[in-house]
Design brief:
The chain is mainly beta. It has 2 helices and 24 strands. The strands form 3 sheets. It has a 14-stranded antiparallel barrel.
Length: 366
């Protein structure tokens, strides 16, 4: 009976996805494990069959729902939206990151429902130079929840710093510091991470802990992603998630195994289109450029002209740039975010399937 419910649930979401993605590029996620939204995970357990629909962009949307794989959990659904809005002032990026997330669930045995919502607003300033990036932020996070007739509400202030350093061969190091101020106390947190990406494979590892006396547990995680043909990708993760002072949901161990599929329209290669936005100087150098408003953080560029080794880009007058000396010919390339994920913005009009479910840009040098 449980398998039948999961199958019907998945088919319903996929039918909704076909309608939703018309004219846009979205991603359908099918996985087993835990919700990535901590408020949901704290209420419904970690053993779920989950189907989600999301649009990844500087402004993002997501919808997901799950049914329990054991008797300990309950069915749930969540939806959210958010993004980063920023403006460049010289080498500094000023902006705000905001999101709104909501969820609901039902406990059939008790014939009652629960749910909640989280609102986040974090102004930030970010600085990038060569292969390094530092971001400072401070703002407010609010969470409210209800179960039957009981309601709780909590607001905290968070300040933090994130730093990323590209160390070559597709790898980058990261460091994070958080300071959560609540009515009952202060909670400092420190963590480190490493990310690696080459070709269709990316992997990450992280660890950290609360350094306050009342929250002395730590967290760690390992994960990876492989791009597959037919616009598919496989992802796995296993982690220990520490307690969060916003939700007070307790620490837990979580695992995820999932498959993602890109849907919707994607621009295709058209010989009549002009080459990508590059500049060729008389010296033979080519400048790859990417508007800063099309990516969050400091990107890298990689292609067959770099043996697919990511090369950090530098920020100049609101544009990320990287220079290369290239002979006349046709080259393939892509961009890499600081989190290790590959992307190609819509401003790159010449593109071709990369054979692993994604696309590469086509650079024509004359």
């Amino acid at each position: 009976m449980r398998v039948l419910r999961v199958t019907i649930f998945a088919l319903s979401i996929c039918q909704l996805a076909v309608v939703a993605v018309a004219g846009q590029e979205w991603v359908v996620d099918v996985s087993a494990g835990s919700s990535e939204y901590e408020a949901v995970a704290g209420e419904v357990g970690s053993a779920n069959a989950i189907v989600g629909l999301r649009r990844d962009a500087p402004t993002w949307l997501s919808f997901s729902a799950g049914v329990p794989l054991d008797s300990a959990g309950v069915p749930w659904a969540s939806a959210g939206a958010g993004g980063r809005w920023s403006r460049l002032l010289g080498r500094a990026e000023l902006g705000v990151a905001a999101m709104a997330l909501g969820f609901g669930y039902r406990v059939s045995e008790l014939e009652t429902t629960g749910g909640g919502a989280t609102l986040v607003g974090l102004p930030f300033v970010s600085f990038g130079r060569a292969n390094a990036r530092v971001e400072l932020r401070t703002g407010v996070m609010h969470h409210t929840a209800f179960f039957d007739d009981e309601r709780t509400s909590r607001t905290v202030q968070e300040s933090g710093i994130d730093a990323a350093l590209a160390i070559g061969h597709g790898a980058s190091l990261g460091a994070e510091g958080r300071l959560v101020l609540a009515s009952e106390g202060t909670y400092p947190y420190a963590g480190v991470s490493i990310q690696f990406a080459r070709g269709p494979i990316s992997a990450w590892a992280r660890g950290g802990r609360w350094v306050a006396g009342t929250l002395d547990d730590g967290g760690w995680g390992l994960g990876g992603r492989v791009s597959l043909p037919a616009r598919l990708s496989l992802r796995v993760a296993y982690e220990r998630v520490p307690e969060d002072p916003l939700y007070w949901n307790g620490s837990r161990k979580a695992w995820t195994v999932g498959v993602s599929r890109s849907l919707g329209r994607r621009a295709s290669l058209d010989a009549a289109l002009p080459p990508p936005d590059v500049f060729q100087a008389p010296s033979g150098s080519v400048v790859m450029s990417l508007p800063a408003n099309e990516v969050a953080g400091a990107p890298s560029v990689a292609g067959d002209f770099t043996q697919w080794e990511p090369v950090p880009m530098q920020l100049r007058d609101g544009v990320w740039e990287a220079s290369f000396r290239l002979s006349p010919g046709v080259y393939h390339y892509s961009f890499l975010r600081v989190d290790g994920s590959w992307f190609l913005p819509e401003s790159v009009r010449n593109r071709v399937d990369d054979g692993f479910g994604g696309v590469n840009g086509v650079l024509v040098v004359r």
